[in-house]
Write a structure and sequence with these properties.
The chain is α/β, with parallel strands linked by helices. It has helices at about 15-30, 70-75, 100-115, 130-145, 155, 200-215, 230-245, 260-265, 275-285, 295-310, 325-335, 345-365; strands at about 5, 35-40, 55, 85, 90-95, 120-125, 145-150, 165, 185-190, 220, 250-255, 270-275, 290-295, 315-320. The strands form 2 sheets. Strands 1, 2, 3, 4, 5, 6, 7 and 8 form an 8-stranded parallel beta sheet that branches. Strands 11-10-9-12-13-14 form a 6-stranded parallel beta sheet, with helices on both faces. The protein is globular. The relative contact order is 0.13.
């Protein structure tokens, strides 16, 4: 049986990253192969699934940036035997999460490439890079990939053709088959990402959602993309729910706990207004009208990137910092177009799903068992 090691940003109570692990793990099992999951020692999984975790000293929680010499020595140690290494989709390969994150990824890649294990990158957002050293490390990482698949156009241009990349879409499109296409679409899903400067924009966002609700009959469903009650993002979305209730807005707080909860909730959405990247993606997969609100270049790249696949990035996105000045125009766009079913969205989502599924399936099929 083929063994495939998986690495990504999972197990940190983030719905999107944990969803990707769930979907790829399931697909590999369906192909009669064994998925192994690199243990990142963050065991706060959104869907609380059981995986075949394997350890690697690079991600020992005792290691930190002060022990860099020790980390650099790890690259020569014995590693888990596997027939391929898959880097799952996500936006974790950038300096936003610290240069040490890139150093560890680089060591992981060196470990497996040295042992002639084929490495594949799926659904990547690459960059942005703030420094020359960060760019160089990213170049080293992706140059070892047998294939590099990205999820938005910005990432295809990152290496300026030095490294071949192919745009296919986000790994979460593997969930397309599980959405109920016959459910009545009537709710408006909203959420707010936990950015560092939320206090600056919270009231503008609250006013935006309240204004939309007063002009339509659709119920507002707040869906946090973290379900741990101790995390700020959960608290932020619950505060949004509470403040909307105080304003007599018809709304519901939806704490997603299972994969079925997720597909059921989004299958009933006519519109999604989200700042969590995967709320935008799941809205599109479900065939809803989607409006993304971003904060900073990193989220702008991701949200505009996926909406570009549908030729709808300009009118369907807005920056948090522009909410106070441009909210009326944004609200009118949603009222005029966002509450009508759009079959083209579902058709495009199906094509992206088929592309992502094909690339994963062909890759799994072409892996040679026991060659490493």
């Amino acid at each position: 049986m083929k063994k495939i090691l998986l690495f990504g940003a999972y197990s940190d109570n983030n719905l999107g990253d944990d969803l990707i692990l769930f979907l790829v793990n399931r697909l590999i099992k369906r192909k009669q192969c064994m998925p192994l999951v690199l243990n990142r020692y963050k065991m706060n999984d959104f869907f609380t699934n059981n995986y075949n975790f394997v350890d690697n000293s690079i991600y020992d929680p005792e290691l930190n940036s002060k022990k860099i010499k020790r980390i650099l020595k790890i690259k020569s140690e014995k590693i888990e035997k596997t027939d391929a290494l898959f880097f799952l989709g996500g936006g974790y390969s950038n300096e936003k999460f610290g240069i040490m994150n890139l150093i560890k990824m680089n060591i992981l890649v060196k470990q497996y490439s040295k042992n002639k294990v084929p490495i594949y990158f799926f659904g990547q957002t690459i960059g942005p890079s703030k420094s020359k050293i960060g760019y160089k490390i990213l170049e080293n990482i992706y140059s070892k990939g047998k294939e590099v698949y990205v999820r938005e156009k910005y990432s295809t241009d990152f290496f300026k053709k030095k490294i071949a990349t192919e745009l296919i879409g986000d790994d979460a499109y593997l969930s397309y088959e599980d959405f109920d296409k016959n459910k009545t679409k009537e709710n408006i899903i909203v959420n707010m990402k936990d950015f560092d400067n939320n206090d600056e924009y919270y009231n503008d966002y609250l006013k935006l959602i309240a204004s939309i609700s007063r002009k339509v009959n659709n119920e507002i469903h707040i869906v946090p993309f973290r379900n741990d009650k101790n995390l700020n993002e959960y608290k932020l979305n619950y505060k949004l729910y509470s403040d909307l209730k105080k304003r007599k807005i018809k709304c519901k707080f939806c704490n997603i706990k299972t994969y079925k909860d997720l597909t059921n909730e989004f299958s009933k959405a006519i519109t999604v207004i989200g700042s969590a990247y995967h709320s935008v993606v799941l809205g599109l997969i479900a065939g809803a009208n989607v409006y993304g609100i971003y904060n900073g270049e990193y989220y702008k790249q991701k949200i505009k990137g996926v909406l570009n696949l549908y030729n709808m990035s300009e009118n369907n996105t807005i920056s948090f910092k522009n909410l106070s000045d441009e909210s009326e125009q944004f609200i009118n766009e949603i009222i005029m177009k966002g509450l009508k079913e759009n079959k083209k969205i579902s058709e495009t989502s199906k094509l992206i799903y088929e592309k992502v599924l094909k690339k994963y399936s062909e890759t799994i099929e072409n892996i040679k068992e026991g060659s490493n």
